[in-house]
Amino acid sequence: MKHNQIIRRQRITRRGFLYVAGIGGSAALLAACGGQTASPTSAPPTAASAGAPTAGSAALEKELYIYNWADYLSQDNVDRFSKENDVKVTLDFYQSNEDLLAKIEAGGTGYDVVAPTGYMVQLMADKGMLLPLDLSRIPNYKYMSPPFDKGRPHDPDNKWSVTKDWGTTGIAWNTEKIKEDVTSLEDFWNLAEKYSGKVAVMDSSPEVIGLTLKALGYSYNSCDPAELDAALKKLLALKPHLKAFDSSYFDLLATDEIWMSLSWNGDVFNANSKRAAAGKPESISYVIAKEGGELWEDDWVILKNAPHPNAALAWINFVLDPQNQAKESEATFYASGENEAKKYMSEEVTTNHAIYPADEVLAKLEAVQVLPGDCLQAREELWTKLKSA
Question: Please, what are the domains in the chain?
């Protein structure tokens, strides 16, 4: 294509990598689900070589470098933005928030726009890596709906970021193999014993520990020692029935190696897509447990040393147009932070409670927090005891 350099590779799901992070300068610790990092088709320019134009200038640069999760954009939106603005868009991909942070800290300053998870926005802002957003130059921000329009915990003043999309954690199961109703984390634990050996959890301590805490009636982000001890006891009772700790559980669901797993919502669509391709029924369902779970969001931010800040602002404004937001959700099966965008989405997306949960369900969800160092250590010790038991 004339205007785009597009990197293509095997799909790695957006929620293939999650985090536990410490306050301030503490290193992020991640659990990886696998896959290969794509190399960019051309190295990004340095800020110096590009002349580092200021965000206040009106001239639109002719290039834009987006550093993003793989397969996490509507290709139609990328192509249209490039053509309409005569901007060559280059996409490069990271596998995790940790990879993103490490690349930028190592001097990878040639990127313009990145899409970190909420907690990482806070960490990057604290490290002085981000350019404050001029919302007057992102007029489509007006379409952002509560709770994504203001007061977000990681960026309460909307200084650094706007919401790209959001999702949840819950339970996935094969309705052909498991005929019982699955509505709660209590159901998950009980059915794990019945279908022992056909159950998995993601190999990611924040989600597994967080959901276990919710099953016990505690906060997803709890640091209380007694509550963490109770979570470990409950997880030790579950472990004998697990086939695997595996963040690629969607592949196991696709091949019937497992019938149930703790899950990120978008992975269910991935599993069913793989099943359809193999001639299997699309029988994987997803539910947010009645006890609650996680509400996460990813955000658009601009790097402080972005060589093309005007093109970056133009891209963010473009993709926040409700019709373009709709294209994003249709492509990724993750929810938009704009209610207006739903007018342009198919009912397959807007009526699917795995993508857009009901308000009463959302009220039970918690956003993941950046955890203090002592809490991080306690949770990692819990995880180590569980895995080694």
Answer: 4-166+296-356 (3.40.190.10), 167-294+368-388 (3.40.190.10)
